[in-house]
Amino acid sequence: MTGLDKRIDGKKKEILGAWFERVSETYQDQTRSFLNKKGDRFANPVAGIVSESLEKTLDGLVNGAGTQVLSQCMDPLIRVRAVQGFSPSSSIAFVFALKSILRDLLHIQGPEADQMALMDKKIDGLALICFDKFMECREKIYELRACEVRNRTFRAFERAGLIVDPEAAEPRA
Questions:
Q1: What is the DSSP track for 57-90?
Q2: What's the start-to-end Cα distance of the chain, in Å?
Q3: Measured between alpha carbons, how far is residue 165 from residues 155, 157, 162 in Å?
Q4: N or C: which terminus of the chain carries fewer CB neighbours within 10 A?
Q5: Are 138 and 82 in contact (CB under 8 A)?
């Protein structure tokens, strides 16, 4: 664990609070005020998902977690944002906010600047992971919608008598 990692770990609560705030800023005022009332995970599941994902992800970044682990950490949060109608860029923009949060709260200078450059690369990699996860979720959503439209159309044609089951049809002599 580097000196920067130890400092991040020491200010973890403040970093997570600021990062959570950056995520909540992406929502409209009414949703933001509800999201900021963290409280019970069952009364406010989205806030719980955001908090948990951010904490696991920050721990993963500090501990040098790989792509697979970071993807699992962000999966619940990115899934929520994928169904909420965010564009891909606005869905993952909060990831980049972590860079400025770390700089603002830790006052990086001197030898830690090199360590921060490495952390910047990790955060950039995290953003790419999140983008891939977001697109994967959106593809699944579109696939499910297309399947539902196909099934609905088939049932409508079936009710209208426009589809004949070949096994039910009488064989011709």
A1: HHHHHHTT--HHHHHHHHHHHHHHHHHTT--HHH
A2: 82
A3: 13, 12, 10
A4: C
A5: yes
